Amino acid sequence: MPSLFRRKRLMVVLIGFIVLVALIGFSIRDRDSLSTPEKFLQDTVGWMQTIIHKPVSIVDNTVENVQNMLEVYEQNQVLKARLSEYKGVIKDNQRLKNDNEELRNTIEKTEALNDYSPIQATVIARSSDRWFEQMTINKGEEHGVEKDMAVMTSDGLVGKIKSAGAFHSTVQLLSGFDRSNKISSWVIREGQDEAFGLIEGYDDETGRLLLEGIKLDEELKEGDTVISSGLGGVFPSDLRIGTVEEVVNDQFGLTKTAYVEPFADLFDINHVIVVDRTMESIENQSQSEGDES
């Protein structure tokens, strides 16, 4: 019995092996179409792959999208930081450019003041309560600065030395001038002689200087240039002050008053030139002595 059972089992294994080989040979040979079981098996496997692939694909795409979003966010943060730095660099460059241009203009103006002894200085302080009246510069008596010397920028006159210390000085700005601070001036007119007037104050409402004492018969036009005459004994001659914007009769109708727009920006000053008129005085004195002889 055991041997018969062993033979039957061997026969079954042998037959199964033969059938398997036959199926393999049948499946690998070239055929125009699949058998029905093969089609069923292929479709079943395909559907299973489709069912499994769909959620896997969704998960993969979701993970990829999240990773892309994180990368984009990080890149966006880096770009924002660089943009902020870039804006800061632009502002710094613009500030340095403006400062450099102002320094160049100041140096050029200093070289042009051949008749005077110019002293370059930098503004180091402006008090908030007297911003429109005075400022402090980093030059004093040790540098040749004295009281009442004219102070200007590359654009024009801005004021005079109010007081001088050893190494620092206080500047009285034109916007802080009153009738006790006068500038003898000429109004340059095209095709006509100069008209005389005195800068005797500052109009806070319009931000313009007041040129007073102009004769009634003098015809001034908008755009006429106002310069210092040098007749007052304090300010040198030919320093640019501003341009005429408006002319009105004074309250008594005896003279005219001109509103003058300053050439220099009185509220944004960084570098100035202190003008020593000693050189001019010496030259004028020499000329006078020469004329007398």
Core attributes:
rod-shaped; six-stranded antiparallel β-barrel; alpha+beta; six-stranded antiparallel beta barrel; 27% strand; 12 strands; 3 helices
List the helices and strands and how they pair.
Blueprint: H1 2-28, H2 36-112, E1 117-125, E2 134-137, E3 150-152, E4 157-164, E5 169-173, E6 183-188, E7 195-203, E8 208-215, E9 225-228, E10 240-249, E11 255-262, E12 271-276, H3 278-292
Description of the molecule:
The chain is of the alpha+beta class and 293 residues long. The chain contains 3 helices and 12 strands; from the N terminus they run H-H-E-E-E-E-E-E-E-E-E-E-E-E-H. The chain has helices at 2-28, 36-112, 278-292; strands at residues 117-125, 134-137, 150-152, 157-164, 169-173, 183-188, 195-203, 208-215, 225-228, 240-249, 255-262, 271-276. The strands form 2 sheets. A 6-stranded antiparallel β-barrel has the order 1-2-5-4-3-12. The longest helix has 77 residues, at 36-112. The radius of gyration is 47 Å and the shape is rod-shaped. The model is unreliable at 279-293 (pLDDT under 50).
